Queue: 3 jobs
Job 1
Amino acid sequence: MKKMKQRLFALMTDPAWLDSIPPAAEWLARLNPDGRFEDIDYTCDQRNGWPAGMHLSRMVALCRAGLTEDTRSRVLTALRFWLQKDPQNPNWWHNEIGTPNQLSDLLLMLWDSLNQEEREKGLSIIARGAFCCQPRILDWTGANLMWGLWNTAKYALLVGDAAPLQEVKRLAEREILENNEEGIQPDYSFFQHGHQLYSGGYGRSFVYDTARLIYLFSESPYQLCKQALDRLAVYIVFGQQYMIRNRHWDYLTVGRELTRPDALKTGLLIPLRMLLSVKEMAYKDVMQEFLASMVSSEYSRDRQVYFYKANYYASRNSYSHLSCRAADPDMISFESINEENLLGLNLSAGGNTCLMCDGEEYANILPLWDFSMLPGTTAPKQSDDELYEASQRLRNQPGSSRYSGGVSFSNCGCLYEATQFQGGSGT
């Protein structure tokens, strides 16, 4: 366990595994003597983008940036503020996934500076995200389960108990290998919250946390079996790879997360590098090629791919990425929860297209979009009020077109759909 704990600490602090350099000086300037950040509203219980959650994420970033004696003292004051107040949100995700994840990172980095009471209080909060203390996590699926497994592994290492790690391994293998209603699908798309295409949303988070587990368990008895390692690699290089252009996701693959800032950034560079560093991983040549293509923006493989479970078709060549998504009665049309995606009715109305050359065409474009005129749709022109009413009435419902499908082989393929909409139909 000592070696795994050292590896976990490296994940938290080694610049090789960090996505960006945080604005540490700016955040320190906003940190009051009582441990609060002056620009955070701790009374706001917004379900998504919870302001109080930034308190922990900033503290983690400050620790990763390196602590002087003064900044360590100030960060410890901020941590004690959190432990005393124990903020919680009406959205269970923050209490059982987000907070335990951030707080476990903090305890790992600040452990030697904490007294026993502070350690125990922190561990009691982290325990809400560990299945050994919160059994309902065992019923989670897809990215939610992987978040729970990652938090459980960190909790086990913090308390010095290896017993849960074997179950973490078993559950991770099962989730990767079994073709469930959610998670990795037989066509290497990814579903979450029922039959919804989420390869670039929850599927991205699934890869990130699974890669961290694989890196953590490298050359240990808890490493995932070869079949699980191989299937994860195939999902990345034969699934996700064809939904990306130059480190940006196709907007049709991220679900309701499309409405979040920087939602289309892939976030795959770090997990790919982690997997490539693991001795037991296979498919390294193809993963390395994928990684190189995102860094250099050069693509050597032209391919057409029809994802039959998701009814999504992608065409990729050296010049562009072009995709189309068809409506399907076996797929949930769109999701709107936690006050996100309130106008998203037409995101899967059928015939939606995505064309990218440099990958940044759709980056943070949402505030300017007319959601009744999304690319490729045949939806009627509506005001935002009309579209909001229809979106709330029809959200989380399956598509209505039974006649849709496609086929692909190497560099050729097609997607077809018989559409139904207000006042008419067509193909």
Job 2
Amino acid sequence: MKKLLTLILALGLLLSVASFASAEEKVTLTLTYAGSVEEFTPIQDAINTHAGDLEGIELNIIHIPAGEYWNKVTTMFAGNAAPDVLFMSEPFPQYASKGLLLRIDDKMTELGLLDLDEWYQAGLDYFTWDGGVYGLPKDVNVYCTYFNRTLFEEAGLETPDVLAERGEWTLEAFRQAAIALTKREGDSVSQYGCAFPTQYGWSSAPLIFSAGAQFLNEDRTECLLNSQEAIDVYQFWHDLAYVDRVTPTPGTPSAELTGMSFQTGKIAMSIGGDWEIATNRSCDFEWGVAPLPVADNVNQYAGYVHIGGWAIAATTEHPEEAMKVLSILTSNEFQISMAESSTGLIPPRVKIAEEYYMTDLMPENADVFFKMLENGTCYPFTVYDGDIDMIYAEYTDMMMEEDSDIPALANEMVEAVNAVLQG
């Protein structure tokens, strides 16, 4: 009898320990994120703030530098170690079309996260594939003109934001400002009027759309980059480098560019995403933002809308918990936290963007971004983007050589892209 009592007590103790261990067990999820430290820090802070909402979930956050992100994430998927929740942007069609992402619309609707009236429509459309929603936006963004207000005022020039208010911030106005703000000392340049922007793939979208050109036709079966509008804007940037000599050429030796950047005050204008606001805040001169310079007869607020968001891997072993993380990352509270961090990233919920984005740390006229969201265009991604981007890179590099024949190269590029799209 004594032995039986001892056994019962021991069994009770074991069950209590097991019960306690079970209560302490947590599900571990991996979340990957790309971006600068300035962007990542407020995301980590906001997650820490909402840690209480993640009861039972341990979140392993992996911050991967932007230039390494997609190679790393692709390797993780290939090695059966896909993150449960991941930052998602340009390669979305490639991942969705291969069944690598979890469809989320039913669950998100149940959680009240797909109220269409609350979101910028471009953000929801971006993550829709074959009739289903496979991600949610964390931010909706635009490319703009960053300008050194101090240099403009010292030169007695009207600033881009003032010109834009009159609908006069055009490519030609940009060119004239760049010429006026370039300083030479003999054969060397001590100050450039503008930086040379990225010229291939989706990175060139700000230049293509603000010129009134398009990458592809509506059903994305034919490339249109040999249109006159596209050829003209390629020629425009080529001539800024080689004719006007107001921007570094793509082949300028790096030694000659030491210390040459917008942030050092040695380049007067730069085309960049709104997320660069966080970096530019360290500038020791007055600067501002304006819409992109546009071609004649193009809407002053035309340009490129860039979407970043969150998705869930189809292979996650914990879809319910991953949905919970996604719901927190896209909640009103989280987006308010992000807006108030003043990174420059625009919240994807309209009301939150309008009420919380314009903090004291933002450029005084950054609300112009809202007009750009209304008039901007998303890049037409396809499942062939890996191959197409290599074609764009090859041909735009050749276009930006000094003696290039841009119309001929544009025709060759379009032929090569069409072969991929139709093959």
Job 3
Amino acid sequence: MSEVLVQQLLYGYSDGHRLLAASTDVPGPAARALLVQSDAQPGPDQSRTLSSFALPEAELWALTATWPADEMSRPGSVWSHMLLLDNATVSSLRGAAGLLGALHRPASMHDLDRYRQPLRITDEPLALGDASMRTAEAILLGLYGWPTRQIGVLNSDLQQPERILLAVWEQQWSTLRMVMTFATRARLSDSEGVQIQVAAARGRTSSSQAIVLDAEGPRPPHEPSWVVTLLGDLRHPGILREFFWRYGPGLTGGRADVASLTRIHTALTMEDAEPLTFAAVAETYPAPSQASMLKHDCLAFDGPAWLVDETVRLRAAIEFLDSVEWEQLEIAERLAALWEIDHASALSLVAQISRRGKPKRLIKSLQASLAPAADADTLRDLARIDARFAAAVAVKNQRALADPVLWSTPAEWQQPLLTA
């Protein structure tokens, strides 16, 4: 099992709340922000709380556990142990179990030396049991069902949500992880910049703009299918998160992309995928530059086996030409190759492009790709669907144009060929 190196910081009371020990130096603005973030309140009955904090300017992400420090002279003092991850570590980490296991409360002020060295963290995924699923469902529904809102989840036990929040974080792709902010608290509070709070009770000052879900209340009457799929991946980590990790970093929709990618993955992994299966991708990300890697992998000749048949892949590409970077897909060359092994399917696809009449560069490229191997039968079949298209192919292959077989039976489609 692999390991990653993580920096750590310890905050606590010593003539004021301050940084007591660290394995690394943090730049000034980031250091001030982390100091403020570390002075959090403990949970109900003086239990610990867990929070995350994003520092995009410094390309850092912090995970903090906070405990009451009743032994200190100042009432309300706390210990906060913080793990600091840079972008490379966040991107490479596959599991968060090691992070959760590395958070420790110091025994006293004499127990600070171990916080002055980086930690080696085991890269191990978190396992969630069935008992966690109701809370996990509320967290997923809130976080991704309202992707632009602050979310509050009520749950009397704050220990279980720690594992769930980190399991949700490890399921995400790197760019989403780097901005993910969460907190467990005794009460919901107004916390600007915290995407989701899990609290034991409502707070009197909790924002009216937040969406609040009760994990111990009645289940929602209609649970979205994407929530069920995400829950399955939390329980048994598998191909869905691998899909996220490959295609998520190229997207720009933030939390909204999670539900979208989940629905797309479900569509692509169904049996008997067909051209319309690709509609789930093209309609969600209509611009050619959006989800370009995913589109390429769906439609490329040597892409993953979602659309297993070359005819299906080409038909999907042609159906959604306005949504793909078609030049990179080498559609013209692949159609010419298909012509040799499945003439009827290739002819149907050529007719589809011809009827569109655009893009002109694709039509010209297709004519050039078909011309070298064209014979009289090829020109005759092309002329029957689009005589002008056939004439453009014939210009590039005079040998086929001169074949007597082409003229053996007079027909109307021959007229444009006479001027080729």
